[in-house]
Amino acid sequence: MNVSVVDKTASAKLTWWLIGIGLGGVLWIAVYSQLTALADAVVSAVGLSRGTHLGEAVHFFLYDTPKVLLLLTGIVFVMGVIQTFFSPERTRALLSGKQEGIGNVLAATLGIVTPFCSCSAVPLFIGFLSAGVPLGVTFSFLISAPMVNEIALVLLFGMFGWKVAALYLGMGLLVAIVAGMVIGKLRMERHLEDWVQKILAGQVAQVNGEQLSWLERLQAGGAHVREIVGKVWPYVLVGIALGAGIHGYVPEDFMASFMGRDVWWAVPAAVLLGVPMYTNAAGIIPIVEALIGKGAALGTVLAFMMAVIALSAPEMIILRKALRPTLIATFAGVVATGILLVGYIFNWLL
Amino acid sequence: MKNIKVLGTGCANCRTTVALVEAVAREKGVEISLEKVENLPDIMSYGVMSTPGVVIDGQVVHAGGVPARSKVEGWL
Measured by CB atoms within 10 angstroms of the end CB, which terminus of chain A is less buried, N or C? Predict the structure, then answer.
């Protein structure tokens, strides 16, 4: 009796969610297809011309802000739902007992869809190791999770097309897979802190996963949008404003002289500059877009972006609690080398 | 009296979880002893992989993210 009442309200709620998603989707497509027209209309309504610096900057801002926010909301909702299928516990179960090689590939791939927050990096790391996931495979996951970022992927797709997005995805996975295999080959287990080694020798506690209904999955998507978009929108606006300034005021080909593809030291400089900086993908991509428009080479800029989002000082400080400095340095060194190679390969290919 | 532990290394979500559990307990007039576990080896001894986690009377009931309010109400 009681159960059927609960079922009825749940199915009514689910219906409302589905109607809402349908309407939202239609509205989303309608607005997204009219972005240039909307920005043109507003720019001419306030009496600016696109021939002027200010006009170009304002147009960039008005065009990019709704575009980035729309893409962001869409992907974050979809990922929020997808992530309910890949809890860390499930991912760990999929990875445990896998050999190096195939395990690295699987770990890097799962790193894209498993929910990950750098404040959980250590528990996740130890949880994986204690279930028998090899160290190198665990690192493949830890590298891929922040670097092959679904937000970065969708924004790159929206701004540069599918080829650049696919290259970014492929190269990011490659760095995570190879870096994990290298760390695995180096046999660095003894560079874990003592308390970690003690836990690994002990028993594994088991937590049972929960079974979720579709309503709960959709609600998780909604909560994900509130959490992520609610948190990153100021970064996005600042990023777009900076990008707009570059777009409007920096002369054409200005960047080519020191961020162009013929400047051999630009890629390492970009990586070195990117490591201490930390922001999220959504904030950095409008800047990337503007730099590329001014003649910066794609590989150089992507290397900068990967270094900013994959190697961050806060995450390393957290990892330091479980990893000795040698292992942290190896981790940073291997990933930085990978990013460097990606930068050169992009510059050479495109 | 229920013994509730919130596991987490001190990120924003962990503080939100502690505040939420406190608020719900006060609202419902349930007496609890609330404890924050920030020491990593202690957190790991519960086998939790994503923080914040919630432990009630030694049993892990939640892991990963701030629990929904309805879920917290169900525990108390």
Answer: N
What is the number of domains present in chain B?
1
The reply to whether A123 and A70 lie within a common domain is: no
Instruction: For chain B, report the end-to-end CA distance as a whole number of angstroms.
Output: 10
Residue A33 lies in a domain: yes
Contact flag B47-A124 (C-beta cutoff 8 Å): no
What 3-state class would DSSP assign to B3?
strand
Chain A nearest C-alpha distance from B11 (Å): 6
Bridge partners, residue A146, by sequence: none
Looking at residue A202, the DSSP 8-state letter turns out to be: S
Confirm if A64 and A243 have CB atoms less than 8 A apart: yes
CA-to-CA distance for A119 and A245, rounded, in angstroms?
Answer: 34
The string of pLDDT tens digits covering residues B13-67 is 788 888 888 888 888 888 888 888 888 778 877 877 777 888 888 888 888 778 8
Q: What is the CATH number of the domain that holds B10?
A: 3.40.30.10
Give this prediction's pTM. Answer: 0.80
Task: Please check whether residue B9 touches A, CB under 8 A.
Answer: yes
Which pLDDT tens digit goes with each residue over A277-305?
Answer: 766 667 777 888 888 888 888 888 888 88
Q: How many domains, chain A?
A: 2
Query: Nearest chain A Cα to B43, which residue?
Result: A123
Range of the domain at A186: 88-201+250-349
Query: What is A175-208 written as a DSSP string?
Result: HHHHHHHHHHHTT-GGGB-HHHHHHHHSPPP--P
Q: Which residues of chain B have a CB within 8 Å of the CB of A117?
A: 11, 13, 50
